[in-house]
Amino acid sequence: MKSTKIPKSIDEYIENFPKDVQIILQKIRSTIQKEAPEAKEIISYAMPTFALNGILVHFAAYAKHIGFYALPSGNIAFQKEISKYKFGKGSIQFPLSEPIPYVLIKKIVKFRVAENLEKTKKKTQKKKTTHPKKTISKKS
Known about the structure:
Blueprint: H1 10-15, H2 19-35, E1 40-44, E2 47-51, E3 55-61, E4 65-69, H3 71-77, H4 79-82, E5 86-87, E6 91-95, H5 102-129
Antiparallel strand pairs: 1-2, 2-3, 3-4, 4-6, 5-6
Helix pairs in contact: 2-5, 3-5
């Protein structure tokens, strides 16, 4: 990465990398956009981030890998598929020396979209079912 300042946009973030890495980052971005067209692009934790009713995923480039952050739930749901990569509680490292698994990224994003939409649906339903406190009026 060329710059150490926090980028203001995903475009600015991607511009800071060599051309070959830029191509990978743009393809990850477009993969996410296709699965989450309503998601908002933001920079969070100095990384490209997609948000839809909360954070969906983050991604970032490093010297030897692409970090993909699908939060713990994304990693738990795809344990088998990510087992061949180095991963942590909410992160996966896709080595730059290997083909990037865009199909897996697509599946994870699709899962996260459904998860966030379901959480929002449940919150909305919960708000509708809670009744306002009854007020007692005094009769004259």
